[in-house]
Amino acid sequence: MEQGMTGRGRPGRPKPDHDIDLYSTPVGTRAVENPVRRAILAALRERERTFEEIVALAGRAKSTVSVHLQEMAAAGVVGSRADPEDSRRKIFFLAGDLIANVSPEERVADALAAYAGAYRPESGDPFAFYKLAFRTIRVSLLQEGVLLDPLLSRAGERIGKELYPAVADPDTGAFCTKIARFWEGHRLGRVEVAETEPPVLLVYDCFECADLPVTGRPACAFDSGILRALFSRHYGRPAAAVETRCYSTGFDHCRFEVVPEGGSGS
């Protein structure tokens, strides 16, 4: 379960304009629209909680919270176990994965034709078509108010775990250099290593977001997931890769701060 930087889902309370959260569960995808339930699930993405904690966070009567938990458990979104310190109490945890947020207020107006028009088959860039496809899918979803950041983040983590042996190095500086070479060699962007302890990486011409519309929010959930997995393996403990700048927030580069659990790396 989510404890700090490990487990299922990602920390963070829902914003009011995120009308629906989509969760994958062992029995299928579940849409959660009720604001109280969304707040409960957001709290469980941070860590496991007792019933009393959930009641305090929800600000609702115990009977109301109990009904919400029972129905979400029946839907496969929430699970529970006995408290080892008091068998009369239950500890609740997130049993599903947050995969997307849907909100009409998050829709962006952006012409998909601009992306296709910028594509030049004769350019000789073998990656150009795949960048076009990826960005067109992202913008198509943004036009409908669908934010797939949670799913993209987990997909990035899976890739990062597979990629790690190809760039592994016990020295953090050398490790960052190998990551930069991989990024550039695969046309993912040009990486500058601004700092190494803790690492700060600047990505120019980012494949994930360089041509996306400015939305005011970081867009590189996929890259963040890859970097999170890479540096977690490097440090031997969970690490966050926090995007503090992005093309989609109006900058000419993306900036990632790597934060190992418990402080800076060795």
TrEMBL record:
- Originating organism: Methanoculleus oceani
- Domain of life here? Archaea
Q: What is this protein called?
A: 4-vinyl reductase
Q: Where is this region: Disordered?
A: 1-20
Which residue ranges traverse the bilayer?
A: none
4-vinyl reductase 4VR domain location: 198-260
Domain HTH arsR-type as annotated: residue spans: 27-117
Q: Which SMART domains match?
A: HTH_ARSR (SM00418), V4R (SM00989)
